[in-house]
Amino acid sequence: MGAFAALVMVMGNPGAAIAQQITGEIGFGGAYKPANDSFAGALLQTATSIDYNGNGIQDFAFRPVILATGDFAPFEGLLASLSDFLFNPLPAGGVNPLWSVGVFSFALDSISIDTQNASTLSLVGTGTVSGYGFADSPGTWNFTGNPVGTRFIFSAGTGTVAAVPEPEIYAMMGIGLGLIGWIGRRKKLGNGAPA
Question: What is the DSSP track for 29-94?
């Protein structure tokens, strides 16, 4: 009996459910501010960190989920928590969590700068997507921001992120950013500004 119990403990309980890998993609959009390593404002081409609130301190902000597929699908339209982060260099141990929404979070393990100039900041990397009731899954992510830090698109998933975004990603980013601008304009017009 003792040997059988030890074998069950080593092999695990065959009757226990095995958690499934997380699948799908998720994207966030909104405003941000390129910043230096102290989270003070910086030019896009010299930035070393991302400040989502633009408040000059390392904290977090809430941004809308503008795309969600697979296991992330129930969270489309909700707000995700995004952590401000230093990308050059990435801190030892990464950033955990980089983002979280609902039962999911993403721990950033690696980062590379795909493009950084006066008009574009594009970052790509890998990490681990965790979710309650799911097995930790390898994930990829991509951050693309425009000048002056007015808008960004951030996507993550459990597949491979290409170093150069596909045309569909640019179309999705354009639609998402247009929607964010339209919502902002409607709010501005709703506050008594002339049409």
Answer: EE--EEE-TTS-B--GGG--EEESS-SSSS-EEEEEEEEE-GGGGGGTTSEEEEE-EE-TTPPTT-
